[in-house]
Input
Amino acid sequence: MKVTNRFWRYLMMPICLAGMLSMSSAAELNPAAVTYKLPDQIPWSPVDARGGQSAVVVGDPTKPGFYAVYTKWTKGNHFSRPHFHPTTATIVVLQGTWWVGTGPKFDPANTTPMPTGSFVTHFGKQVHWDGGQGRGRRSVDHGGRTGDGHGRGREIDHGRASLPARIEA
Output
């Protein structure tokens, strides 16, 4: 019995070592079939005045066509002001909690939390605002946004109390 256990131990050690070595060496991918960026290759912008960083990973959000952008929020209370976009965009919360509000009245205390894994759709021409909150609330660390390039969001005129929730083209 002892000899059999030793035999299997010596037989399995080289097989396990070969398996571990094969896992650590990556296959060469054909760039005509697949492109990718590892986390350390993603081109993050500097932190902007809103307290966020962004990285465009595909496309151009200012031009027509598909795009994808990652956003990271620094600690603190960072919100966009009520605005709308001409086209629909989808957002996935990758880490943390993202806080979302709708309508022309900016009120960070009256937001809905979107935890990690949430999928959100911002419909075109609908007023919304969003961001990360401090004050003991977990803030979004990473989010991903996709859509058809639509240019910059348009802030609404805060002096117009009668602004409808839907903006016509």
